[in-house]
Design a protein that fits this description.
single chain
Length: 251
């Protein structure tokens, strides 16, 4: 009769089991960390690309905002001069050239259109999470300020139309256009000589009606041109903050 011998199975002690468990645990953990590091590097590289694109957008916005801010500051100051003239003088005693020039700015009109392609792409894809919390918050703040300015501009559309209608009842369009041409030619750096040359022509008005002038002033006041200056000023400051942070974070 054959005797079957069972193979001898060496039993492992607790220490050996523990070492095997530890090796498996370390391998899984290291793999996890390696994957996280790889994803972190990938996200950082993507964030760097987005940052470079956003910097270009902000530079374009800044150039536009500087022009916008200068334009509305000049317009608001001229409207202040217009109202001051009417407040202390009889209309018929004010040189009509001054009324044309300063009154022209009640119809000041310019739009700020932000170059926000990068932001919109990051927002729609959830890529804003690539930026650190503080930086992402500043990006969101800049976008919020952009939308506030655009909302203000949108709300002013109807008032702007009424301003133009009322202005057309006071100022002859031929001479108003002459004043506008002086403004357009001097858009970057206003030449006082050109302005004085127009003012001295003293073109005729269509009306000297005080009530009509008063209506025009009230419409212009309701446009709140100073708000355009304030919003653009806030945007310029926030753009500067963002540019500094993006360059610092992503070199």
């Amino acid at each position: 009769m054959e005797v079957h011998h069972h193979p001898h199975v060496e039993k492992k002690n607790f220490k050996e089991y523990f070492l095997e468990f530890l090796m498996i645990f370390l391998a899984v953990t290291m793999g996890f960390f390696a994957e996280n590091i790889r994803e972190g590097i990938t996200e950082h590289q993507r964030a760097k690309i987005y940052a470079a694109s956003m910097i270009q957008d902000l530079k374009a916005d800044t150039a536009q905002l500087n022009s916008y801010h200068k334009y509305y500051t000049y317009a608001a100051n001229n409207i202040d001069s217009f109202m001051q003239l009417l407040a202390v003088n009889d209309i018929k005693n004010i040189p009509s050239g001054k009324l044309y020039w300063y009154g022209l700015w009640g119809g000041a009109h310019s739009y700020f259109i932000p170059d926000d392609a990068t932001f919109q792409q990051m927002k729609s894809s959830g890529s804003l999470s690539y930026f650190k919390a503080g930086l992402a918050n500043n990006v969101a703040k800049y976008d919020r300020l952009c939308r506030l300015l655009q909302t203000h501009e949108e709300m002013n559309k109807d008032v702007y139309t009424e301003v133009r209608k009322t202005r057309a009842m006071i100022f002859d369009f031929k001479y108003n256009e002459m004043a506008n041409q002086v403004a357009q030619k001097n858009k970057v750096l206003f030449s006082q000589a050109s302005i004085n040359s127009f003012i001295s022509t003293n073109p005729p008005l269509l009306s000297y009606d005080k009530t009509l002038f008063n209506e025009y002033v009230e419409l212009v006041r309701s446009r709140f041109l100073g708000a355009n200056v304030a919003y653009s000023d806030s945007l310029l400051l926030q753009a500067k903050v963002l540019l500094t942070e993006l360059n610092k974070e992503y070199h």
